[in-house]
Amino acid sequence: MLNSAVANAERNLHLKSDDLIVGSTFVDEGPTLKRIQPRAMGRAFRINKRTSHITVVVTQREGA
User: Cα(61)–Cα(35) distance, rounded to whole angstroms?
Assistant: First the structure.
């Protein structure tokens, strides 16, 4: 994730990778995939496959 954020800053904003630092990181809840597992006597058991969104913000070092 960090390598991707640095590459995006270099390519899109034309910043040097040596001048970048991690500004903030956070993880948010993503969509939940709902699946069903068969159980005894014709019943069904729900399985929730949770996902997440990871965000890394890089900023330019002060004085650079």
Answer: 45
Q: 2-6, long-range: CB within 8 Å, 24+ apart, which pairs?
A: 2/56, 2/58, 4/56, 5/56, 5/57, 5/58, 6/58
Beta bridge partners of 56: 25
Position 63 pLDDT exceeds 80: no
Rounded mean pLDDT, 6-29: 94
Q: What residue ranges in 1-64 does DSSP mark as E strands? A: 20-38, 44-60
Q: What are residue 62's phi and psi, to 5 degrees?
A: -70, 140
Average pLDDT, the chain: 94
